[in-house]
Structure prediction request, 257 residues.
Amino acid sequence: MKTTTLINKEDKLVVLTGAGISAESGIKTFRDSDGLWENHSIEDVATPSAFTRDPSLVWDFYAARYNQILEVKPNPGHYALKQLEDHLGDNFLLITQNIDGLHRLAGSKNVLEMHGSIDKCYCNKCEKTISTADVIAHRPASNSKTERYPSILKNKHQWFKCSKCSGLNRPDIIWFGEIPYHLDEIIARLRECTIFLVAGTSGVVYPAAQFLLMAKQHGAKTIGINLDAPMNVDFIEEFHQGKSGDILPSLVKKWIE
Ligand SMILES: [Zn+2]
Prediction:
């Protein structure tokens, strides 16, 4: 494997991870072959208006995702990034688009979860925060195979109701049409980083493409790791094709030797 990079303790490294690194831990996308979840488009269950229209349906979706994530573990790619953080300390920043919390579980500390986290919730009225575990604990048991909430009780007995007000607890996740978290800090760190690494995302779509461009314009070296070859080769100077779980551990070893 070719790598020309050495990462020194003085380097400021920013990493962006995407769905690919979670997929290697077995996280499913919840889309079937039609791109739907139980006949609903993802946009029908992951927007603020979907939650206003049918909060039970949205919670069915997120309860299923939450329960799945309880069963998965970080993979060698997550642990390799933790090793990089141990090497660089505060000069390391991990930005992730993933909501599964696997980077934190692997021990990473300097993590910005730009799309939120599935283990946290907040009230859509008073904004009181609560853990998803505490919300889900009130979810009635369901015998249905798909763990759907019994439709007869839909929106009547709202188990996800806020304990302090008449609002509803919602997952602390950035939905379509909402603004990602930490953008100011992300932009500031991209402007001063010396190396920007993108793993588990193609780098063609927002936000990876814009982040790559910004880091490069400010003089950072750009490195990509992904299953598919990058489309925007102009933005990625060093590219490694494959799974991050296979590639990152040995790369990190070489980078910090
Ligand atoms: Zn409330």
